[in-house]
Amino acid sequence: GLDLVVLDIMMPEMNGMDVLKELRRESQLPVIMLTAKGDDMDRILGLELGADDYVPKPCNPRELLARIRAVIRRSPVAQDGDHSVIVTDDLELNQGNRTLTRGGQQVELTSTEFSILLELLQHRGDVVSKRDLYISALGREPVPHDRSVDMHVSNLRRKLGPDPRGDNRIETIRGIGYQYRVA
């Protein structure tokens, strides 16, 4: 079985975005996109469609390898038998098999979305800085104008919906980061 897909957005036959869309229909396999330097639209669209991270081209093979390792380390197979479950409101997050249910229904998350939610839930009620989320969820320091974490949080908000009280689960703390609200 595959561990991870590196997807070039500019492929000759089929657009990388279409491949990503198809893939996300039935799989949460980790995906790293290769995007043209400075093509923010591609990056944002790719992250919206569920890519885990991106590497701008031309890229240094060592950096690509480091990103691949960081993503694989966080994907479900790489767990070391930590089966703790975090329950908050109607959410149940299982760290062992990296699954999330909301009200008993499975919610499909990419490995990066899962890692961000895990970090926020482990510190629920506290503000988690964006830098901490980059390091814990993406395995790297943020770079200027990088909106990856914001995009992943926006995907999470869409997938999780409001909490049982009808409130936003994840608050943006301007200039700092995010906070998972507790009642």
Topology:
Layout: E1 5-8, H1 16-26, E2 31-36, H2 40-48, E3 53-57, H3 61-74, E4 85-88, E5 91-94, E6 99-102, E7 105-107, H4 111-122, E8 127-129, H5 130-138, H6 148-160, E9 170-173, E10 177-180
Parallel strand pairs: 1-2, 2-3
Antiparallel strand pairs: 4-5, 5-6, 6-7, 8-10, 9-10
Describe the protein's architecture and organization.
There is one protein chain. The longest helix is centred in the middle third of the chain and has 14 residues, at about 60-75. It contains six helices and ten strands; from the N terminus they run E-H-E-H-E-H-E-E-E-E-H-E-H-H-E-E. Strands 4-5-6-7 form a four-stranded antiparallel β-sheet, covered by helices on one side. Strands 1-2-3 form a three-stranded parallel β-sheet, with helices on both faces. The radius of gyration is 16 Å and the shape is globular. It has about 180 residues and is of the alpha+beta class.
